[in-house]
Amino acid sequence: MEVASGERPALVPVQGIPLIRYFAENWPLVEDFQARPDDVVICTYPKSGTTWLSEMLDMIYQDCDAQRCQRAPLHLRVPFLEFAVPDAPTGLETLSQAPPPRLIKTHLPVELLPSSFWRQGCKVLYVSRDPRDVAVSYYHFYRMAPVHPHPGPWPHFLEEFLDGKVSYGSWFTHVKGWWAKAATHPVLCLRYEDMKEAPSQQLNRVLTFLGRTLPPGGATAILAATSFTTMKANPKVNYTALPRTVMDHAVSPFLRKGEVGDWMNLFTVAQAEAFDARYQELMAGVEGPPIHPSPTPGADPVSH
Q1: Can you give the pTM of this predicted structure?
Q2: In sequence order, which ranges of 37-191 are alpha helices (DSSP H)?
Q3: Domains in the chain, start-ordered, CATH in brackets?
Q4: Which of 47, 25, 227 lies closest to 138 in space, CA to CA?
Q5: Mean pLDDT throughout 154-181?
Q6: Which residues participate in catalysis according to the annotation?
Q7: CA atoms within 13 A on the CB side of 157
Q8: Where is the Sulfotransferase domain (predicted)?
């Protein structure tokens, strides 16, 4: 895999799902990945709290010792299953060196997750986030991660997002697929907003799901290590270790704001109304963790 300086490769569909070109080129190896029964999968649509949950789980499995979580950058401690870019180890190569139990990150929709995960009965933790905040965060991520196509201006990117023409396809299809899978497979569905509002409660849900307990003071240590401020300043978590050809932090930090409701700083009133209408259309009758795509009382989208 080679990339010319300044090149922004187009997305390549895999079974109808648009993916980063290098991920698609490596797809046959990903599809054939052999999971183990004790593998734990952390899955989200992009920009929905993956890094947060990954650091939380590594803290859990490292007995809440923040120093042990400094042993390597997060992408080596929690390998990214489908990751592949020029001049760097693939996620599969990193996973081949990972000791059990392996924590595995992915953004794949349910229909693309390698079948060995289902055969082995692996536990999956799935985080969803208000799609308006996802769209804004994804826009800034596209800007700083040149393995994606150029996002263009915000209105263009928003339309691409709503039409499922961004990497990993439609947010709506992604969350509906994973929420439905929770009825037949061990999938814990979490909400980003709940993790912000009640982190201790959501940590307890995670521990119960994983069948883990914490040492004395463990919860306090985890919540301190996984606060947004701490993670943003932690070079083992904030992805500043990756080359600029993968993420250019001079354009935008990978961990940018981590806020709920940041969409109101970018959406116009018309965009907010159009987004809400699309949400109501595509999510009608869907049972799952509520996303509540409606303006926060007392706050108005940007008018411009």
Answers
A1: 0.89
A2: 50-61, 74-77, 91-96, 115-120, 131-144, 154-162, 171-181
A3: 12-282 (3.40.50.300)
A4: 47
A5: 96
A6: 107
A7: 21
A8: 37-285
